[in-house]
Each structure stands twice: as structure tokens, then as C-alpha cells.
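step=encode ok
step=design start
structure_in=
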């Protein structure tokens, strides 16, 4: 089954290249086109019914992370008697039908990750995801030229998404010297090349570096030496923004990440504040002040925000398009999805989420 999004792969000629190769090889296919950003559970249900009727035994996700995540969900359903939603609610996935990818945007890293995220539309409206090792694609065909037509805004949002997948591993309760080096190198790569790709869409080097960074940001190499628990927190903070308001995931993360770091500086332990300071020094060139580590950390966050703004990302809920007065709804949905507590780099309860987003409503 060929799973893809809107008209971009047809406008670019990629659709004809893929289907022509399949036809030349004599491979029968069904097609599921029309995947939307922030992919929907109801659309997966439609695709799964078609896949089972057609006796599909392989999925090829072509396009962005939403197409790949949709294909992963269908592959899970095929391998588990039609049941897949349980895996987005905590049940451990042990098998899925084989899946390959051809991605056309450097962003979510779904092409090499063991993760998938869906919006439970028509039911709770919540955004749910998982990370299960058996759910990685068998292969990912990576051609930076396929990303040339991505708009400046989506290029920037994708770059912020790459940054966030490294951010979630870097800000961890565990220390890892080698892990830090991997993460800081990935951060600096995105910081350097995202502005180039935004301003020069056909710059091959910039597109190639971002595509590679996207895959490495979410294939768990950057998580070496760190537990899955006690890290990040920006994704749980953001998930219900893009899930409910249908905003770009990377744009929501651009609001969440620096706001979370401000909270860490204010409420974190000295070790946690030092971690933010290290991030500012190693990634954004902040000057280290040993007598005032918090000031170093704050300077790093200011530089982080300035970089996000320079590539056109929003820094406030208002800039993201969240209506004024919706703060309590944002807090409620966030807490409902996380059992009342985000167990990240720092624990965040409802009061913490209210403080974090309350500081960046406008």
C-alpha cells in the first residue's frame, strides 16, 4: 500500500517515479492518499479497512511524518488482528507489518524512529503517541532534493521539530558525555543550516544536513547513555496544542521549549540549571559566568528564542494562533493526557504548566 499526503508528491513528479518503479517491478499496490498534518485516527481506520480488503503485506509511506505515522498505524493493525489503538494507549507493540519510507521533509524523523503519533479525532480529540522498538521502518530512502519544494515556514517548523527530538534526549536526569557530544553537534547543525534552507530552498548542503540531522535526532543515537524516563517534557507540553488547534507541531514546540527552560531556571535544582547553562554555552555561544550560572542559562534561552524568531517560528500562544482565554483549556488537556503530571526533566503539574504557558500567552 502506498500511503501519501496531499498533492505535493504529484506536483513534484515523485508520485510518478514511485508508481512507475512499482509497475516496472510488477508489484501490485493499493493507494491511500490524502493524509493531513497531525494525522487522524479515523483516516487510519479507513486505510486499515482497505489494506485488509486488499490483503496488503507491505506499507510504503511517502511524504512527511504524517504519512509515515499513518502507515505505521496501518502496519500495526495488519499485524495485530486489526487492533492498533491499544499501542497508542500504552500497550507494548511487539510486531507490525513491514514498512519502508521515502520522506520529503526534514522534520519528525519518523523515517528512522520507532515512534508514531495520531490525533484521536471523533473521540477524545487528544494526540497520542508511542515509542516501541519493533516499529522502525525497514528502510528510508533519503534524497535531499525531494525537500526543495518545502515552504520556508514548514522548513522552519521541521527544523524546530528536529531540534526538539534532540532536546528531549539532552535534557535528561542521566548524564552521558558521549550523548552530550552527539546532541550538541546535532543542535549546532540545525542552528547553522535551518536559516540557510529557509532563505535558499535549493541549497543542497543545507537540505542534506537537515535531513540527516532529522533522522539522527529520533533514531535514538542521541539518547545514548540516557533512560527513556526523566527526560524532556516539551512534547507532552505541546502535543495537545497541535492536536487541538491543528497547528504545525514544530511551531508549537518553538513556544514550548524555551518556556520550559525558563521554568527550569526558576524552579530547577542547581544541577538542572547548570544543564540549561551548558546548553546555552555549547549550542548558542553564551558566555559562561561561573559566579552566576542562572544568568548564563537565561542568556542561552534568550539566544535560543532569537534563533527561533530568526527562522520565523512563534514564541507565544498568541503567535501560534491559540485564542486568548484558552489557557485553562490548554492546561486541562495537557494534564488529562499525562495523568496529572508530566514526568520529564523536571516534574510539571497543572500549576507548572499554567506558569509555563501563562508567561508566554502574548
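sequence_out=
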Amino acid at each position: 500500500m502506498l500511503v501519501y499526503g496531499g498533492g505535493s508528491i504529484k506536483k513534484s513528479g515523485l508520485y510518478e517515479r514511485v508508481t512507475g518503479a512499482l509497475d516496472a517491478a510488477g508489484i501490485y499496490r493499493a493507494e491511500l492518499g490524502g493524509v493531513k498534518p497531525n494525522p487522524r485516527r479515523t483516516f487510519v481506520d479507513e486505510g486499515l479497512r482497505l489494506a485488509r480488503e486488499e490483503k496488503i503485506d507491505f506499507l510504503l509511506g511517502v511524504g512527511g511524518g504524517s504519512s509515515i505515522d499513518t502507515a505505521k498505524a496501518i502496519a500495526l493493525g495488519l499485524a495485530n488482528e486489526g487492533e492498533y489503538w491499544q499501542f497508542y494507549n500504552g500497550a507494548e507493540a511487539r510486531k507490525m507489518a513491514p514498512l519502508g519510507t521515502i520522506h520529503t521533509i526534514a522534520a519528525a524523523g519518523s523515517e528512522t524512529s520507532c515512534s508514531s503519533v495520531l490525533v484521536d479525532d471523533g473521540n477524545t480529540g487528544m494526540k497520542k503517541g508511542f515509542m516501541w522498538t519493533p516499529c522502525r521502518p525497514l528502510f528510508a530512502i533519503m534524497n535531499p532534493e525531494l525537500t526543495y519544494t518545502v515552504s520556508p515556514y514548514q522548513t522552519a517548523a521541521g527544523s524546530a521539530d528536529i531540534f526538539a527530538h534532540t532536546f528531549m534526549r539532552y535534557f535528561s536526569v542521566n548524564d552521558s558525555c558521549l550523548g552530550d557530544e552527539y546532541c550538541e553537534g546535532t543542535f549546532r547543525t540545525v542552528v547553522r543550516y535551518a536559516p540557510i534552507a529557509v532563505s535558499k530552498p535549493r541549497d543542497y548542503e543545507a537540505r542534506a544536513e537537515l535531513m540527516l540531522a532529522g533522522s539522527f535526532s529520533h533514531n535514538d543515537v542521541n539518547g545514548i547513555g540516557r533512560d527513556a524516563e526523566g527526560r524532556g517534557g516539551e512534547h507532552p507540553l505541546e502535543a495537545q496544542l497541535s492536536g487541538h488547534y491543528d497547528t504545525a507541531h514544530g511551531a508549537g514546540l518553538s513556544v514550548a521549549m524555551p518556556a520550559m527552560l525558563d521554568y527550569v531556571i526558576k524552579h530547577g535544582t542547581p544541577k538542572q540549571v547548570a544543564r540549561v547553562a551548558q546548553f546555552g554555552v555549547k549550542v548558542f555561544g553564551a558566555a559562561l559566568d561561573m559566579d552566576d550560572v542562572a544568568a548564563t542559562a537565561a542568556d542561552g534561552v534568550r539566544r535560543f528564542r532569537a534563533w527561533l524568531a530568526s527562522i520565523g517560528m512563534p514564541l507565544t500562544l498568541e503567535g501560534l494562533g491559540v485564542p486568548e482565554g484558552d489557557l485553562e483549556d490548554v492546561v486541562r488537556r495537557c494534564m488529562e493526557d499525562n495523568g496529572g503530571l508530566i514526568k520529564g526533566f523536571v516534574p510539571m503539574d497543572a500549576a507548572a504548566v499554567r506558569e509555563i504557558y501563562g508567561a508566554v500567552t502574548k
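step=design ok
step=annotate ok -> The chain has a mean pLDDT of 96.
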